[in-house]
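Memo to structure team: turn this sequence into structure tokens by end of day. - J.P.
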Amino acid sequence: MAKEFNVTGICLPKLHYMVPLEGRLEQISRLVKKGDYFVINRGRQYGKTTLLRGLKDYLKKEYLVISMDFQAFEEAKFENSVVFSKAFSQYFIQLAGSMRPNPDNRLQRLFLDWKGAMQDEKGSFSLFELFFYLREFCALAPRPVVLMIDEVDSASNNQVFLDFLAQMRRQYLERDETVTFQSVILAGVYDIRNLKQKIRSENHHKTNSPWNIAAPFEVDLNFSAEDISKMLAEYEGDYRTGMDLSDVSREIFDYTSGYPYLVSELCRLIDEKVAGTPEYHDRTAAWTRQGILAALRMLLLEKNMLFDSLAHKLEDYPELQDMIFSLLFTGKTIAYSQMNPAIDLAMMFGFVKRDNARVVIANRIFETVLYNMYLSNEELKGSALYRSSLQDKNQFLVGGHLNMRLVLEKFVEHFTELYSDCEDRFIEDTGRRYFLLYLRPIINGTGNYYIEARTRDLRRTDVIVDYNGEQFVVELKIWHGEEYHQRGEAQLLGYLEDYHLKKGYMISFNFNKKKQTGVFERWINGRLLLEAVV
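Reply from structure team:
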């Protein structure tokens, strides 16, 4: 059976193309060897379950690994500590008892005694009894025991789970006096330190975490361009497409920043949806920069669990929504602070990342998805600029090509009519929002735009528009005098060189009453600059 790129469930090396995990598993195994208890918390579809499966195999020669998944527990199992303790015990015994060979009869007797205690109707089998038997198991086990629990989010809004963690913490603190787990690893989206975000009601907020014993987990789970290249090298060995592994891997990384689901889904779309189309008739044609852009357009139009999760989190946490809006539209620089609840949430959910001491959107795909989300709200509210674009849209497309000059001309016309009284409060990101609001219905379905796209030398531009394989670089600036304007032109020329383009576009928002509006041409160093002045 041929391998494939997998975006649902666990990735298996025999069935799926995968980024090598060995380096990360080695880093995690060092924490286990030290006896650390820790949490692997990352955003949705970050490959946590696949990582745990790989870690279990990696550790099994040296440790006895019990790997649990709290999704196996329905909500009723968290009704109270007795119900939970019995359900946990049954699950644990089933996993531990299935491991062979197990020549020690003492373990079998322990399991029988354990089951008997659970069935004794006269007694109360609760967390105290559960941890008594867990300690006994660790003492009798042939190797140090590592406990892994995936999807702890399934339980983290239950008081009984907090009590369970408190017992686990007590055992950890007493490990010098009694045998217990070598290491405990919890995995989920919510960091256990942030349980207060999930356990909250109108009258009561939980703020103290019973998991303050957790060691920092600093293993980078994002894929690097080199990781992606290694995965694609295996694919290339199977199909001999002739792709440039370095360029393709770097291009995929530039859009995804290594977010595991986004990497795998882009690769899957190229392989399964782009290759074989009239424009990309085979895999050789598909595994190119243009093929990646085609897959990217498909991805941004998808309704998938990851994008749905982003939308739902914004609905659930207004403070998060406000912060993301500020990052996208106000031009505000947000300094990273681990004490800021909104930043903490955004980092935990994978919306943002740290860029030195600043908070930035995690990757270019998320940035575009979030822009689309916010702009859609304005469209639904009936923005006058959006309505104007809908009326104009057909005249901009000729023979499958986008007439960007005409787009700018009509944008100047409508913007001047609608917003000519904007002055001091107007900032560059406001201009970007207006331009994208006008642009979206024109390119929707066939083209796309990317915000603050990093070029190879890490300089930044404002908007890259991709339509039917053609790219348009659009620099947006507010008029602050001729010297500032010339710097903007020089910056745009640099972008054109980076993208190997002969024509570039600039939109200057000029609130000088004596300005002359319109679209003007300038040839500079053999490149044509079209400047729209509004």
